[in-house]
Amino acid sequence: MKTHFLRTHRSSESLPREGQLAWAIAEVAADPVEVAPEVAEMVINRVIDNAAVAAASLNRAPVVAARSQALAHPVTTGGDGATVFGPDLARRVSPEWAAWANGVAVRELDFHDTFLAAEYSHPGDNIPPIVAVAQHVGATGHDVVRAIATGYEIQVDLVKAISLHEHKIDHVAHLGPSAAAGIGTLLGLPVETIFQAVNQALHTTTATRQSRKGQISTWKAHAPAFAGKMAVEAIDRAMRGQTSPEPIWEGEDGVIAWLLGGPEATYDVPLPEAGEAKRGILDTYTKEHSAEYQAQAWIDLARRLHAEHPALADPAAVESIVLHTSHHTHYVIGSGSGDPQKYDPAASRETLDHSIPYIVAVALQDGGWHHVDSYAPERGARPDTVELWRKITTAEDEEWTRRYHATDPSEKAFGGRLVATLTDGSTIVEEIAVADAHPLGARPFGREQYVQKFRTLAEGVLDDVEIERFLGLAERLPELDAQELRGLTIQRGAAFLEVSPRGLF
Predict the structure, then answer these.
(1) Where's the MmgE/PrpD N-terminal domain (predicted)?
(2) Coil, strand, or helix at residue 116?
(3) Is 211's pLDDT higher than 90?
(4) Average pLDDT in the 342-362 region?
(5) Does 494 reside within a domain?
């Protein structure tokens, strides 16, 4: 890997394109290096993972609304269009709208892959826009694998180097550029064209973190889909010869100077050397539970404690439970956020999946986690749950913060130490570093687990024939021709699919 040094430049400095981060990203995207076999295998896993979550969310309101919008935009010119999760294969829409609808379906349950470092991300959000464009232009599965490897690589590299949340910018600001780069790889575009698209994608996808603060709305699922849609449109504009703001990161009035660390800030961004394989996807990990990633390990610990220390499920037996954890967990999903909504039984599902006190309370009482039942209003409003929930707080611990940011995979951790004080005066102290499904966890996810996750979430939604049809295509992804790739979706009869209230389209 090489390091790209990033800082603000005054307009009078006239930073050449070859010195700009967007150009360096475009060079990585245009590099014809082949994908390593283990990377291709992980790409398949994540395509299956995305479809699993999409199947479980087909009739959730944000997905219904996004799908209805997409279906109002049939394919026009330039290609054959792309499929949308749910409708049959013959129903095609314009690719940017397929990216939109499928992106919402993938993100709605907060249940697909993650990468956490200086920033946090869901790199699987790169897949919907890449596949949509691939279906539209008649690309092959081999093309898609190369493109997804690029999308993951760029997003992981940006997330390792540049914190967005520190400056209250939403993390999808790293997704617009990575998706644009991935589509550039897919289409074999020249560096200049990809460069312009990366600039435009970043410019149009920076927004504040209010979408993940306080009472969290349904926009949480739409935000990454919007970034994917903007990436598709940025590529289209760039292919037509249109230029974009530059230097977008480094400019005097650019992203670093006014949205991130300020004119004096510097960043070291790791990027592959020319000819170096893109392996970023291998640093990422998926979820076994439908909740914010930093809750994964805590759910696993709580379900173990449910069996080993049943008293922890009884609020009458508990004086307090303190979760000693990283800075990020404490301030984003813990009591350090200062959000009273994280303790509100009437809070939205989106808020509750970002409330570690709620999640630990329910997992301690139920001994597990369910993507629907654990968020049911009646579940959250149970008096004994509310009582226990309000006795759970978080505290930042320097050691867990250090481990959160560690670059050594054996040191990196997203859990913490639970200290429970019982009303009889006794204490229970337990800790967990990583989720059971993490590559270094108790039960790491492999292909078998990804397939089982798909089968479990698709049960009752897709029929057996459709489940096998999709898995048969997904597991042969690198070999698919253009016609087969157009079938890489999940379909369910129109009678099952709900339709949103009428909008403008």
Answers:
(1) 20-266
(2) strand
(3) no
(4) 95
(5) no
pLDDT tens profile 356-387: 999 999 999 999 999 999 999 999 999 999 99
Q: Please indicate, yes or no, whether residues 187 and 70 belong to a single structural domain of this protein.
A: yes
Q: Is 490 a domain residue?
A: no
> pLDDT of 224-277, one tens digit each?
999 999 999 999 999 999 999 999 999 999 999 999 999 999 999 999 999 999
Across the chain, mean pLDDT equals 96
CATH code (residue 318): 3.30.1330.120
* CB of 200 closer than 8 Å to CB of 150: no
Q: Is the pLDDT of residue 213 over 80?
A: no
Which residue segment(s) compose the domain that 227 sits in? 2-283
408 compared with 23, residue with greater pLDDT:
23
The DSSP-derived string for 150-207 is: HHHHHHHHHHHH--SGGGTB-GGGGHHHHHHHHHHHHHT--HHHHHHHHHHHHHHS--
3-state secondary structure of 97: helix
The set of long-range contacts for 340-347, using a CB threshold of 8 Å and a minimum separation of 24, is: 341/214, 341/215, 341/216, 343/389, 343/390, 345/377, 345/380, 345/381, 345/386, 346/377, 346/381, 347/215, 347/380
Q: Which contacts (CB < 8 Å, 24+ apart) does range 212-215 have?
A: 212/170, 212/332, 212/354, 213/337, 213/339, 214/339, 214/341, 214/351, 215/341, 215/347, 215/348, 215/351
Are 299 and 274 in a shared domain? no
Single residue among 388, 405, 432 that ends a domain in this structure: 432
Angle, alpha carbons 139-232-69 (nearest 5°): 105
User: Quick one: 153 and 40 in the same domain?
Assistant: yes
pLDDT band at residue 392 using 50, 70 and 90 as cut-offs = very high
Name residue 85's amino acid: F
142 with 245, same domain: the answer is yes
Same domain, 221 and 74: yes
- For residue 150, the number of C-alpha atoms closer than 13 Å in the C-beta half-sphere is 35
Which pLDDT band, with edges at 50, 70 and 90, does 137 fall under?
very high
Answer yes or no: do 242 and 320 share one domain. Answer: no
- What is the total count of domains within the chain? 2
The verdict on 224 and 324 lying in the same domain is no
194: domain CATH number is: 1.10.4100.10
pLDDT of 214 reads 79
